[in-house]
Amino acid sequence: MKRFFCSMLILLMLVSGVALAKKPLALVQSFKTMDKPVNYPNYPSDFEYLKNWLSEFATFDIITDLDVEDGALKNYEAAILPDNAVMGEDEIDAYFDFVDRGGKLFACFSASLRKEDGSLTSFQLADLFGVTWERWTNEKDKHKYILFESHKIFKDLPKDGIDNISSSTQLVTLNQGEELATWTNADKYTPSQADEKNACIIENEGCIYVTFPISTPLYLDDPNFGKLFINIVEYLSPNAMK
After folding, report:
1. Can you give the pTM of this predicted structure?
2. How far apart are CA 166 and CA 143, in angstroms?
3. Residue 198: inside a domain, yes or no?
4. What's residue 11's pLDDT?
5. What pLDDT sits at residue 28?
6. CATH number where 136 lies
7. Number of domains the chain contains
């Protein structure tokens, strides 16, 4: 009888362990952003491209912003938010809860910059990103080069930095976030912005935020930026890597 109860206890522990086990990675598709085609006409095609590109080296589930609102993130270790610009309050709260529970988050460019009605605001996820939004810019004579210090996400990238391939970026003011990479002009020396506004890759509370649209085909197809994105995914969700 004692052996029976011990066996049942072990079985319950194993079943509980399976129930509590989390999947490594979720890619979040934003229906709210898709519903704003005037502002984000390329979101559907960019998301599809990212999904196919990511599947080459990582295992992940696709969930929607509606799933996030319903609590789906509790089943995952990490989540990727491509340019998911439009968010409602319930979705925002879900991301904060996710990170509070130890979840890891990647976001880039315009993520969380618009409310559900489409109105422009500051980053709704500012406290997760570790920055405050200033403005979007496309200054042709700035943001030409990216410098960085030693960090796992820059593994196998040129140690002296990488050339940017677009001028489009969000300008942010660094708050509690840790600056991982900064902008320079084409001379690879002159900072593009004042020190507190010159960060382009930031880490904060288990989150990586990138100020430029690294999740779009233009960047994914570039050898250096494609490698950077792979490194970020591996850093945030090592169990997702194939």
Report:
1. 0.90
2. 8
3. yes
4. 53
5. 99
6. 3.40.50.880
7. 1
